[in-house]
Automatic annotation (TrEMBL):
InterPro entries: Aminotransferase_I/II_large, LL-DAP_aminotransferase, NHTrfase_class1_PyrdxlP-BS, PyrdxlP-dep_Trfase, PyrdxlP-dep_Trfase_major, PyrdxlP-dep_Trfase_small. It is an enzyme of class 2 (transferase). Keywords: Aminotransferase, Transferase. Its cofactor is pyridoxal 5'-phosphate. One of its GO terms (molecular function) is pyridoxal phosphate binding. Belongs to the class-I pyridoxal-phosphate-dependent aminotransferase family. It comes from Mesorhizobium wenxiniae. This is Aminotransferase. PROSITE patterns: AA_TRANSFER_CLASS_1. It comes from the Bacteria.
Length: 405
């Protein structure tokens, strides 16, 4: 029987192949150090968990909640934007809570896309950026470009060669997977371009608080007038180590926020109220929890870059995000990122995410997530050192797994 139309447009998740291999190595007793999925390993700060436990005892919180987010939560998010970015938001019309930012992004795509609408999307990028729109009948035009001088010319080319003219542009800085960051000046140029060409900006700022070199990533909404064309998504998952809680936000342009709010009102009843209250408590905090999470990733980053380089693998130090975007070492480059990732599991007991899983232009890199402790990261580096040394001595012994099958 033929696959359903929508399912046919969703290729099997590349990461599934790595996951299967990881599971089978583990079932053989291998101790796989998992730097693959960006799944934070740190516990949610105690005060946030305590708040959840306190609130959950009140049976009134067990009813359906509010799809767009309870008022106190939307106010807390608006206050966060005020404190952190100096951006004033109306919690009633410019803020909506989402069930994680991934859900918010996908439903925004659903809310605004007509069949055939063209979306300008980075490549490589976090998969929902493209597939949220593909699932909604949109068409992706990939931008293989960094947030530098080449960006606006790439947008101009994108506009010139797209019929119909693109509906929206996706930005994601700090980037998953590349960890690139953008400056406020960059955003100014992009906003001016978007306004001139009547294009919506969807900015994914999931890593707003994970930065290491003293430069907090800006929000696109800091650009005066950006709110006329832009919406931004943030997430509690990384900032407060709350990935399983599923709490995020979309903020910005009233028309876009109200479109998302409308679609969500048909789909969900909002996150469980105790989660929303605890999330508001987190956002209203003094920032100490955020600083602690940031500090842990910072130390892990330093350990990883240092230990991997001593193992013979030079990995550029990311300035932000919880990822390093690592070029595949020269002797393995020709294999591509999926085969190289498989080799690392098989011969070094280390899992990473193959760059091709984020788009075709990611295939000469793998993504290393800082989601194991410093000790385990050092162990991963030792394993990789051994693997690189043995493959240099006997290259024929290290055959891509596909060749065994
Ligand atoms: C860039 C980016 N956006 C969104 C998400 C999803 O976050 P959430 O847990 O809020 O859905 C992630 C998670 O890895 C991400 O890296």
């Amino acid at each position: 029987m033929e696959e359903f139309h929508k399912v046919r447009r969703l290729p099997p998740y590349v990461f599934e192949q790595v996951n299967r291999l990881k599971a089978s190595a583990r079932s053989r007793g291998a101790d796989i150090i998992d730097l693959g999925m960006g799944n934070p390993d740190l516990p949610t700060p105690k005060a946030i968990v305590d708040k959840l436990c306190e609130v959950v005892r009140d049976p009134r919180t067990h009813r359906y909640s509010s799809s767009r987010g309870i008022p106190g939560l939307r106010r807390a998010q608006a206050n966060y934007y005020g404190r952190r970015f100096g951006v004033k938001l109306d919690p009633d019309t410019q803020v909506v809570a989402t069930l994680g930012s991934k859900e918010g992004f996908a439903n925004m795509a659903q809310a605004i896309t007509a069949p055939g609408d063209v979306i300008l999307c980075p490549n490589p990028t976090y998969p929902i950026h493209a597939f949220g729109f593909i699932m909604s009948g949109g068409v992706i035009r990939s931008l293989q470009v960094e947030p530098d001088d080449g960006f606006i010319p790439a947008l101009e080319r994108g506009i010139r060669h797209s019929i119909p003219k693109p509906l929206a542009l996706i930005l994601n800085y700090p980037s998953n997977p590349t960890a690139q960051v953008a400056s406020l000046d960059f955003y100014k140029e992009v906003v001016a371009f978007a306004k001139k060409n009547d294009i919506i900006i969807l900015s994914d700022l999931a890593y707003s608080e994970i930065y290491f070199d003293g430069n907090p990533p800006p929000s696109v909404l800091q650009v005066p007038g950006a709110i006329d064309v832009a919406v931004e998504f943030t997430s509690m998952s990384k900032t407060f180590s709350m990935p399983g809680w599923r709490m995020g936000f979309a903020v910005g342009n009233h028309r876009l926020i109200s479109a998302l709010t409308r679609v969500k009102s048909y789909l969900d009843y909002g996150a469980f109220t105790p989660i929303q209250v605890a999330a508001a408590h987190a956002l209203n905090g003094d920032g100490a929890d955020i600083a602690e999470v940031r500090d842990i990733y910072h130390k892990r980053r330093d350990v990883m870059v240092d230990a991997f380089s001593r193992a013979g693998w030079i990995v550029p130090a990311p300035a932000a995000s919880m990822f390093a975007w690592a070029p595949i070492p020269e002797p393995f480059k020709h294999l591509g990122s999926l085969e190289f990732s498989k080799l690392l599991i098989e011969h070094a007991d280390v899992a990473v995410a193959p760059g091709v899983g984020f788009g075709e232009h990611g295939d000469d890199h793998v993504r290393i997530a800082l989601v194991e402790n410093e000790h385990r990261i050092r162990q991963a580096a030792r394993n990789i050192k051994r693997f690189l040394a043995s493959s240099a001595k006997q290259p024929n012994n290290v055959v891509p797994l596909a060749a065994h099958r």
